[in-house]
Each structure stands twice: as C-alpha cells, then as structure tokens.
Design goal:
The complex is a heterodimer. By secondary structure, chain A is an all-beta fold. Chain A contains no helices and eleven strands. Chain B contains no helices and eleven strands. Classes of the chains: A mainly beta, B mainly beta.
Chain lengths: 111, 115
C-alpha cells in the first residue's frame, strides 16, 4: 500500500527566502507525481505534474524534482511571497490514476 | 474552461440523518473521483468512476456511503446514516485520462459537519 509522507508539517519563513518542501513515498512504481496548493476553505489547485520518466518540472518560481528510485520529491519555491502562504500537498498516482496524498505542509510567509 | 462544480458548499446535519452531495465535472473529462478530506489530513480516495462505471470503490464504506454517476457526467455521493466521524470536506475531481499529462482538477468541496 502506497504511503506518502511530507516534512515538515508546518513551515514559517520571512518574505524573500527560498525554501524546499519534501515529499517521500514508499512504492516507487508510480505513474506520476503532483504537487497541489490548497488555500483555506478551497479545493486543490494543481501546481506541477511530473511524469515518472521525468526528473523535474518548472513553473515560474516553482521547481519540482522527482527521484523515483529513492522515493523522493522536492518542491522548491524561490523568492517566497506572502501570497504563497497555503498548504502544499504532494500526491503520487498509480496506473489507475488514483492519487495517494500526503498530509501536506502548511506554509506561512511573513511580510 | 469551467471548473469542477460542487454543491452545496456547506452542510450541517445530525448523526443518523442522510445527506447528498452533487458534482459536475469539467466537460469532456471521463474520469471522476470523490475524495474525503478530514481536517489536518490529505484527501483520501472514496470512489473513482470511468465514464459511468466504477473503477475503484475499495475505500468506500459501503454500509453507509453510495455514489452514482448518471450518463457518465454528473455524480452524487450519499451518506445514510451519517456518523460523527463523517465530518470532513468532500472533494470531487475530474481528469482527462486519455492525456498522459492531464492533472486532476478539483472542485471547492462540500464541508460536512455532523453533530
């Protein structure tokens, strides 16, 4: 059974800092990995999707990497802003496209 | 494109009552999912549909939960009777399974409180 762990559970940083969120998974037989953002009272917004054959994906100030063999992914956020404050969720997909989620990292960027 | 629509946004019921949630996925998305998200946790898959057929409902508590997807479009999720531990946000998501790079698109969810 796939298990996804995210560390840390919460993170608070001053504006402008670069930061890294970590995600690990137990079964390396994945189809893809997605990073989501969740704002309070809202649904999930997909940020980046990395196929199992890829090593990384970039979108603006976000960069996600995937090391399937070690069961790890990182989300790098450059030059953080208060608007980045949210919960970030990592999820891995098996062949049936079902996602198994981690519990998330709650990020607070202080002005 | 219009996003995934869910209703209602909030629902408060007493235990042992019944409740139903509705989801309209993105047009053309054949795959539809219902997730349960308990406060402080990541979403947990309840059921996955491909068109109007069930792909996986292994984590759906079938003694009290049921779901259907009529004509391969809209879906409803029902709880009867509700328990206190069912208090959670119920998220609907859809995807275009035919595209390998297609992410899941989520609705804003229905927040259920069982008292």
């Amino acid at each position: 059974k796939q298990e996804v762990t995210q560390i840390p559970a919460a993170l608070s940083v001053p504006e402008g800092e670069n930061l890294v969120l970590n995600c690990s998974f137990t079964d390396s037989a994945i189809y893809n990995l997605q990073w989501f953002r969740q704002d309070p009272g809202k649904g999930l917004t997909s940020l980046l999707l990395i196929q199992s054959s890829q090593r990384e994906q970039t979108s603006g100030r976000l960069n996600a990497s995937l090391d399937k063999s070690s069961g790890r992914s990182t989300l790098y956020i450059a030059a953080s802003q208060p608007g980045d404050s949210a919960t970030y969720l990592c999820a891995v997909s098996g062949s049936a496209r079902q996602l198994t989620f981690g519990s998330g990292t709650q990020l607070t960027v202080l002005p | 494109e219009a996003g995934v629509a869910q209703s209602p946004r909030y629902k408060i019921i007493e235990k042992r009552q019944s409740v139903a949630f509705w989801c309209n996925p993105i047009s053309g998305h054949a795959t539809l999912y219902w997730y349960q998200q308990i406060l402080g946790q990541g979403p947990k898959l309840l059921i996955q549909f491909q068109n109007n057929g069930v792909v996986d409902d292994s984590q759906l508590p079938k003694d009290r939960f049921s779901a259907e997807r009529l004509k391969g479009v809209d879906s409803t999720l029902k709880i009867q009777p509700a328990k206190l531990e069912d208090s959670a946000v119920y998220l609907c998501a859809s995807s275009n399974r035919d595209r390998v790079d297609s992410p899941l698109h989520f609705g804003n969810g229905t927040r259920l409180t069982v008292t």
